[in-house]
Each structure stands twice: as C-alpha cells, then as structure tokens.
Q: What sequence folds into this?
C-alpha cells in the first residue's frame, strides 16, 4: 500500500510539473507573439513619424506622438506580463490584448489619415 501511495504522489508531482511547463510555454509563446506584433507596429509608427516630420503636419505629428505613448504603454504591459509568476500572467493578458487592439486601431487610423492628408506643397 505504501508504494502505491508513493507512486500516486510521484505521478501527481509529475503531472503538476507538466502542467506548469505547459503554462510556462503558453506564456512564452504569447509573449513572443506580442513582441512580434509590437515590433511590427513600432516600425509603422516610426514610418509615420518620419513622414510627418517630412511633411510638418501638426495634426499628424500629434497623432504620431499619441501612437508612441500607446506603444510605450503596451511595452509596459508586456514587461509586467513577462515578469509575472505562476498564473498571474493570465490576469494581465486581457489588458495586454486590449492595449494591442487599441494600438493596432490607432496605427491603422493614423495611416489612413496620413494617406488622406495633403502635403505642404499641395501635391
């Protein structure tokens, strides 16, 4: 009977360890995806900033500044998620997802505004 209990305890520990490894991998995969999305959005933001600098359009410069702030906020949320332990990252995931959706929408809006904005030379 003692070896059965010992065997069950070992199996439970092994299962718990596998669950933790699976959770850690899920968290790492999620963070990797967010890093990729943020790098892509950062390139778009920098591209818009470069173009707004060239065009000296005050409205677009303000939009570009707001995008940079939203990107910084998303970076902070990702950092908090990566530093989280155990299942705490799951609680941070909704905020990260919301920040990323907001940033993507803002980048898309700024891109469309930029395309519609006249150049200073009127072209």
A:
């Amino acid at each position: 009977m003692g070896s059965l209990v010992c065997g069950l305890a070992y199996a439970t520990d092994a299962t718990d360890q596998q669950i933790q490894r699976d959770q850690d991998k899920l968290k790492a995969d999620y963070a990797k995806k967010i890093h990729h999305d943020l790098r892509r959005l950062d390139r778009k933001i920098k591209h818009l900033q470069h173009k707004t600098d060239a065009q000296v359009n005050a409205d677009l410069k303000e939009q570009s500044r707001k995008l940079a702030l939203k990107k910084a906020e998303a970076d902070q949320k990702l950092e908090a998620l990566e530093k989280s332990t155990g299942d705490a990252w799951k609680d941070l995931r909704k905020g990260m997802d919301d920040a990323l959706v907001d940033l993507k929408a803002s980048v898309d809006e700024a891109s469309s505004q930029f395309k519609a904005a006249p150049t200073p030379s009127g072209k």
User: Anything to note?
Assistant: The radius of gyration is 22 Å. The helical segments are 2-55, 58-83, 88-116. The chain has a mean pLDDT of 82. Residues 26-116 form one domain.
